[in-house]
């Protein structure tokens, strides 16, 4: 399995220190020291010259290799103390103060952030006063995030009122949280006792949240590799067949699928899997004349009924 971005970032930070102390280090020796292949090391070395001490791209690391040895030509230049420009210091101070006010932030983390902010203010001088006139207000998602984070740290179960756009309804669920992650939006992954399965919840769709006294007891589950995408259908999920016209070919780009066969009219016959086939009714409504659900038959029928009901509702308003 490929290393994720966090693992690679940690490795590259260690690599900078390692190379500074070993000028002319051999590629093979460095790769063995970090437990990676020489190709992976070369890929890291291709990225490092784009890093440096300035947010604007100046003072970049001048590191290269001849395939046998690695040379760092300006280690002393980047070792100088970091000096922030006024806008850089302002951005950091405003962000730090905003995060420190998040509800539910662990007190130890809050105090550490306050201390770091005080040091930054001292270093920033007059800029710190200007940044104090700026503030950031978090969306309501921030409170949900804090409660989920607390539930994870205290290993407690959560109660949610959650909006499902696929069904256009609110459901109440008890969830044993597993982790928080961000892929475009911020999500909670947990064991849902309503579904008796692992489920993912978008934080901005949580209408209400409560921490319960019951301990979280999610079954042992292997964490998914999110580099493969948020939606990862299983071979056990029900199969759905959708036929789209030329205007609906985007479905094959947007939805993970098993196959996409060309149709004579320039459209596609797409076979895909989903743990919740009913959620595709919204897709059918969105496609309109550009597509239809073919299988399973009961889902195709319910999609037609939904379309007819939507049309009737529209005509009654005209």
Report on the structure:
Helix 2 (27-34) packs across helix 3, helix 5 (86-100) runs antiparallel to helix 6 (107-124) and helix 10 (281-287) packs across helix 11. The longest helix is centred in the last third of the chain and has 21 residues, at 297-317. The chain has 318 residues and is an alpha+beta fold. The protein has helices at 5-21, 27-34, 38-47, 75-78, 86-100, 107-124, 126-131, 141-154, 250-254, 281-287, 297-317; strands at 25-26, 63-65, 69-72, 156-164, 169-183, 185-192, 197-202, 206-215, 239-244, 259-262, 268-273, 291-295. It has eleven helices and twelve strands. It has a five-stranded antiparallel β-sheet with strand order 7-6-5-4-8, with helices on one face. Strands 10-11-9-12 form a four-stranded antiparallel β-sheet.
Record the SSE blueprint:
Layout: H1 5-21, E1 25-26, H2 27-34, H3 38-47, E2 63-65, E3 69-72, H4 75-78, H5 86-100, H6 107-124, H7 126-131, H8 141-154, E4 156-164, E5 169-183, E6 185-192, E7 197-202, E8 206-215, E9 239-244, H9 250-254, E10 259-262, E11 268-273, H10 281-287, E12 291-295, H11 297-317
Low-confidence stretches: 136-140
Question: What is the CA-based Rg, rounded?
Answer: 26 Å
Structural category: alpha+beta
Q: In which order are the strands of the major sheet placed?
A: 7-6-5-4-8
Order of helices and strands: HEHHEEHHHHHEEEEEEHEEHEH
Overall geometry comes to extended
Helix fraction bin: 25-40%
Largest beta-sheet details: 5 strands, antiparallel
> In angstroms, what separates the terminal alpha carbons?
56 Å
Total E-strand runs? 12
Strand content: 15-25%
Q: How many H/I helices?
A: 11
Mean of all residue-level pLDDT scores: 76
């Amino acid at each position: 399995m490929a290393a994720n971005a966090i693992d690679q970032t940690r490795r590259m930070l260690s690599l900078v220190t390692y190379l500074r102390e070993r000028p002319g280090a051999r590629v093979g020796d460095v790769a063995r020291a970090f437990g990676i292949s020489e190709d992976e090391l070369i890929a890291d070395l291709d990225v490092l010259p784009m890093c440096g001490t300035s947010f604007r791209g100046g003072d970049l690391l001048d590191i290269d290799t001849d395939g046998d040895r690695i040379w760092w030509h300006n280690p002393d230049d980047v070792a100088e103390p970091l000096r922030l420009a006024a806008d850089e210091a302002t951005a950091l101070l405003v962000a730090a103060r905003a995060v420190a006010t998040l509800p539910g932030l662990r007190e130890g983390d809050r105090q550490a952030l306050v201390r770091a902010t005080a040091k930054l203010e001292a270093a920033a001088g007059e800029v710190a006063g200007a940044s104090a006139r700026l503030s950031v207000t978090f969306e309501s998602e921030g409170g949900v995030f804090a409660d989920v984070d607390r539930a994870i740290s205290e290993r407690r179960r959560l109660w949610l009122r959650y909006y499902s756009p696929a069904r256009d309804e609110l459901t109440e669920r008890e969830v044993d949280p597993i982790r928080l992650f961000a892929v475009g939006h911020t999500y909670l992954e947990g064991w849902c006792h309503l579904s008796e399965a692992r489920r993912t919840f978008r934080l901005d769709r949580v209408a209400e949240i409560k921490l319960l006294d019951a301990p979280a007891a999610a079954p042992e589950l292997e964490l998914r590799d999110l580099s493969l995408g948020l939606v990862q259908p299983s071979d056990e999920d029900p199969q759905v067949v959708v036929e789209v016209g030329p205007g609906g070919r985007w479905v094959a780009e947007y939805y993970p699928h098993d196959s996409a066969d060309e149709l004579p009219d320039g459209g596609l016959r797409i076979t895909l899997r989903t743990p919740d086939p009913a959620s595709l009714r919204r897709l059918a409504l969105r496609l309109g004349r550009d597509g239809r659900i073919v299988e399973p038959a009961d889902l195709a029928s319910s999609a037609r009924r939904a379309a007819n009901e939507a049309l009737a509702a529209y005509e009654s308003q005209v």
